[in-house]
Amino acid sequence: MIYPENSVDKLGFTEVKELIKAHCLSIMGQQMVDRIQVMSNFDQIRKFLYQANEFKSILQSDTVLPINHFYDLKALAAKIRIEGTFLSEEEFFQAQVSLSTVFAVIGYFNEREGLYPNLEALFEHLPIEKAIIKKIDAVIDAKGKIRPNASRELMDITAGISKAEQEARKKIDQIFKSATASGWTADGSLTIRDGRLCIPILAENKRKVKGFIHDESASGQTVYLEPEEVFTLNNQVRDLEFERRREIIKILTALTDELRPYAPLLLSYHSLLTKLDFVRAKALFAIDIEAEMPVVSNEGSIKLINARHPLLTLSFKKEKKTVVPLNVTIDEGTRIVVVSGPNAGGKSVCMKTVGLLQMMVQAGLLIPADEHSTVGTFKQIFADIGDDQSIESDLSTYSAHLSKMKHFVEQANGKTLILIDEFGTGTDPQFGGPIAEAVLESLNHKKVRGMVTTHYSNLKIFASNAEGIENASMLFDNVQMKPLYILEVGKPGSSYAFEIAQKIGLPQNVLNLAKNKVGFTQKKVDTLLVDLEREKKEIFDTKTSLDKQQRRVNQLLAENEELKGFLEENKRALMREAKQEAQNIILNANKLVENTISGIKSSQADKETTRKLRENLNQELQKHTVKPVVAKPAANAESEELKPGDWVKLVDSETTGQVIEIAKDNVIIAIGDLRTVAKKKRVQKISRKEVPKDIRKIYSSHTSDVASFSPEIDVRGMRGEDAVHAIEKLFDRALMMGVGSLKILHGKGDGILRKLIRDYLKKYDQVGRMEDEHADRGGSGITYVYLK
């Protein structure tokens, strides 16, 4: 299907596979990536694409999939199948955690039934046999060690070992104390020699204590002696340990026998884990290159919208550059695109982008292109890229090209995609051009699809007249003499040979001599192409500028409509509040009048009581009397100019706060731990004495918190979860206090902790950017986090 086979290397597909392998959690997943091939089965391609796209959605939008441990269950199942063998504690632990992952994943998708149908199909009809893990759990603990109560015999043996060790320790302690009191021991404490607990005895006293000498010091002044009374107890411990080992083997053998019937099911679980690791790696790579799932067609057509070369995208991302997107269509009307233009103008990258993205899609990989792009399915992909001369086959560069052309012409059909770089080069242009034209005509008759790059004028002319073939050129700024890397379909491009030679500094007399040697017709055609390209560039720039202005106008109109709606809604809300307040005032006034009348009647017109009731009525009425607002003169407004640190009160409430910052007509106010923005005309400056004491106390304590806050944290040596938790607390305080940046010391190591911390912080919109410390001051071992 792919011809020649090294095309996968030349187009960059092999490098893409290596980048995907780097995301795998297991060797099994990496092996599956190695087996990725370009497929032609349409249904299979769609299935793999949907799986990768669904996993990408999980990684970007859903909670974390519980994939924690991946071990080779296939190898364990193969060992279990053999009668008489048994798995070790470590192997049972691997099976235990791998099965826990399997069941957690299945539970995860069962909770989201129907949401990820293509991923759910991976374990469709797969039985959940939790009896396996229950059997293992009864024997192996969470740390991968055999449980002391795995059997009654093991419990008794373990208890016997513990008892014997205690007796031996008690006995040797007594002897050691006695020997020390007699002055027979050397300085130091009990020590282990040959796995036995010994007493350090001075050499001259070694015969005063009965026992067995296991070692002596380098100077010979101290011997390490195991007392005779302890020797028997230690031997007993050793015998019990041997017995315990035999019992453990017996338990593990029995457990292995119990799991032997489940060996085929373990293989199925192994397959699920491998596929999940494989799809996860593809999804992570898709996120790296900002890939999407295109529309997939069973026809031999391509429509790429804003496509980018994935390897170039990753390279440019490191350099903080952007790739110029590619837009190209290859279909029944435009079967072959002939791309021309100057050297280093992007022709080959353009063609390789088309070829690599086609291979990626047919291998079930998402591509860095707009999701509305359409990618067809081809039975064959033929590529002629680079120099394939061979000493062994006695082939020159041109002979190698011709050998490929022979295969192309004989084997190509309407479901073939051809990619030819520098078509016709390698021999005398007088003959190479016509041969290339003949090959192109033959391929066109076979209705093949593809893209070729060339400098030959005869191919440009042929493409302009032949049905199904379209000229295209890489745009070039012939004023600044630099490529723009934009593909324009519809016209051929000049090679800008004389212009580039002039910019490089080739002597003018040499250029003039060269121009005289070029035929008049050829020179006229090339000049027309240059002029046409210049005019097209001017039109393109003008159109771009107009589009930009139109977008700005549309944005301003939308903002104006939004603001208008906002003002109308506020107006209606204020009217409703005013009406409600007026109703409340009237209601309260009526109640007050009725209460006053009732009071006068009940006091039987007592003058003093009547006077007090009338005064109370007048006071209440004056509270709700609307006083005219007198605008302050401008001079007074200037004297009341706000500045950071001033205390203010919102005019429409009793809320009190302190000014943090002034931005044009807006004031940023701190109200406790909160921040709010208000218009200057909505705040009234007040003195510090007018601020309630409890509020001043809150602000003073808040100020001390800010003063004691340090925007630096050291998480070196911490576990990943603990480090993230500590950084999360620091991050929350920094946001609350308006801190601009944080400094995180995590060390270099293998870069795992650094990646974990950065991936965690990326999910916060408040994080503007992250960067390493200067190389002289810690480099990648320190991360600076800049907050928006």
Task: Please give a structural write-up.
The chain folds into five domains: 2-148 and 255-288, MutS, DNA mismatch repair protein, Chain A, domain 3, CATH 1.10.1420.10; 295-504, Rossmann fold; 540-617; 638-704, SH3 type barrels (Roll), CATH 2.30.30.30; 710-787, 2-Layer Sandwich (Ribosomal Protein S8, Chain: A, domain 1), CATH 3.30.1370.110. The model is unreliable at 389-394 and 626-639 (pLDDT under 50). The protein is flat and about 115 Å long. It contains 24 helices and 24 strands. The chain has 788 residues and is α/β, with parallel strands linked by helices. The chain starts with a strand and ends with a strand. The strands form five sheets. A seven-stranded mixed beta sheet has the order 1-11-12-13-9-14-15, with helices on both faces. Strands 19-18-17-16-20 form a five-stranded antiparallel beta sheet, with no helix packed on it. A four-stranded antiparallel beta sheet has the order 2-3-5-4.
